[in-house]
Amino acid sequence: MTKTEISGIAPFFIVRNVPAALAFYRDRLGFDITFQGPTDDDIFFGIVKRGAAMIILKDIGVDPVPNYTRDIKQGIARWDAYLYVPDPDELAAEFSSRDVEFFRSIKDSENGDDGLRGFELKDADGYVLFFGRPR
Fold this sequence. Notes:
2 helices, single chain, alpha/beta, four-stranded mixed β-sheet
């Protein structure tokens, strides 16, 4: 039996304001808005995409709860999404040119931790996104 391809996975973020979240991903991070709705007058759901990476955004009337707010070990599990990037240095330079504020600058992980190279930023609702790759 052949396996049907699964071509991606997308984090599902609860946000305060979908139009504001969509604008952040489009204007600051260069994502395309692939869906917003259900109508132009009532936008509480959206999907953004850049390359193969997609993020789902929805306002359900509660505050977002990013992982770092629950990270009792302070830094061990702060990411809400890992976005694989073949050249994180190039993407960091692109984001710098858009005046994106970094949560953690581009670097190799320290003390043998994770073995990754990349950077972190927070989106408009505080979700921590890691953009990088294995070293």
